[in-house]
Model the fold of this input.
Amino acid sequence: MRVLVVPDKFKSTLTARQAARAIATGWRRVRPSDALDLLPMTDGGDGFGRIMGSLMGARA
Done:
């Protein structure tokens, strides 16, 4: 199965990227043969610039 993991941040606890990785880690424990694509999401608030820059391949 191919799965798209698209979480937003968990404010004050995890960035969207960290949340995507955590979800993927748990998923892989149960279904290791599934193909996962991680796509951290943003609603335009905190972390918007970081996520959009990463998706466009920007470097600091």
In short: Residues 2-55 form one domain. The chain has a mean pLDDT of 88. Helices lie at 16-30, 48-55.
